[in-house]
Automatic annotation (TrEMBL):
Belongs to the zinc-containing alcohol dehydrogenase family. Quinone oxidoreductase subfamily. It holds the Pfam family ADH_zinc_N. Residues 13-336 form the Enoyl reductase (ER) domain. One of its GO terms (molecular function) is oxidoreductase activity. This is Zinc-type alcohol dehydrogenase-like protein.
Length: 341
């Protein structure tokens, strides 16, 4: 079957950084695995980080890609949630081969039925970013799903115009929070406003002077999607006493936690692959949240964050999308659909 993979970890402008390969189609799924025919894929920063140059050579092609929409072809003997022919969407597991291939094996406990109102391309834009935003807001920051009680509370979303931020704004709006988004370019500012941000500030400048200009003295929650260490002092200054900060971006350098001490403030990580990596007892929660989100999409409460769709799925186009992501100027999500005949 067709796939896009790598043997060497190279700069994306090198034609060998991602190449078209032929690999063996997965055999019959075992246990709770589904065999999915891949119709569309999306690209996330995790793809570019894993592909980033390093001194390592793979014996077999490594397949990346952790956003898939497709059709279930076969189910494992222990499956109870899906059957052949079901249309699905999911992010997969980072410790297994990714979905940049014509067929893909995935545990059904992290898969959802595709929203009926969306195309495969529109659905492929959602899983990884939706799971990340959902878990961050509801599981890590413990924000209530219901607007009652949240009217006076605020959330600052740093790097809000990207894929995760584009979903987080919508979820935070449904929860009734006052939303402060950070964006720095006219097009990204307009994008976050369209999604529901109440205020927009520039993450290239100190936060507090900008917040105070808008009458905001502190924020109850902070969701950091860009350079945790760089923004740390500004976040620690802006967070309210007993407030909570969540980040999805690892730190390449130590930061000083002491400013959170007097405020009894919380800092927590969100990594959406944790449940699948460790096969946690609550692994199926990702299936449940994708099912819930699909209903919300079909009810018109959440919109897809797809902004560009490229065809077909091949190495040349995938390298192009990686280049766009690495530029740091993308808005929403970029999707590729349909493998070449």
């Amino acid at each position: 079957m067709k796939a896009i993979g790598l043997y060497k970890y190279l700069p994306i402008d090198n034609p060998e950084s991602l190449i078209d390969v032929e690999i063996e189609k997965p055999q019959l799924p075992s246990n709770r695995d589904l065999l999915v025919q891949v119709k569309a894929i999306s690209v996330n920063p995790v793809d570019t980080k894993i592909r980033a140059p390093k001194d390592k050579v793979e014996e077999a092609p490594r397949i990346l890609g952790w956003d898939v929409a497709g059709i279930v072809e076969r189910v494992g003997p222990d499956c109870t949630l899906f059957q052949p022919g079901d249309e699905v969407y999911y992010a997969g597991s980072v410790i297994r081969p990714g979905g940049n291939s014509e067929f893909h094996l995935v545990d059904e406990r992290i898969v959802g039925h595709k929203p009926k109102s969306l195309s495969f391309a529109e659905a492929a834009a959602l899983p990884l970013t939706t799971i990340t935003a959902w878990e961050a807001l509801y599981d890590r920051l413990n924000i209530s799903h219901h607007p009652d009680g949240n009217e006076e509370k605020s959330i600052l979303i740093i790097g809000a115009a990207g894929g995760v931020g584009s979903i987080a704004i919508q979820l935070a709006g449904m929860a009734g929070l006052n939303i402060i988004a950070t964006a720095s370019r006219p097009e990204s500012i307009e994008w976050v406003k369209q999604l529901g941000a109440d205020y927009v500030i520039n993450h290239h400048e100190p936060f507090m002077p900008q917040l105070k200009k808008r009458g905001i003295e502190q924020v109850d929650y902070i969701f950091c999607l860009n350079n945790t260490a760089q923004h740390w002092s500004h976040m620690a200054e802006a967070i309210a006493p007993q407030g909570k900060i969540c980040s999805i971006v690892g730190m390449g350098e130590p930061v000083n936690l002491q400013p959170l001490f007097g405020k009894s403030a919380t800092f927590v990580w969100e990594y959406m692959f944790t449940r699948a990596m460790y096969k946690t007892d609550d692994m199926e929660e990702q299936h449940k949240l994708l099912e819930r989100v699909a209903k919300m999409v079909d009810a018109g409460k959440i919109r897809t964050t797809l902004v560009e769709c490229i065809e077909p799925i091949n190495a040349e186009n995938l390298r192009l999308v990686h280049q766009k992501l690495e530029s740091g100027h993308t808005i929403g999500k970029i999707v590729l659909q349909n493998f070449p005949e």
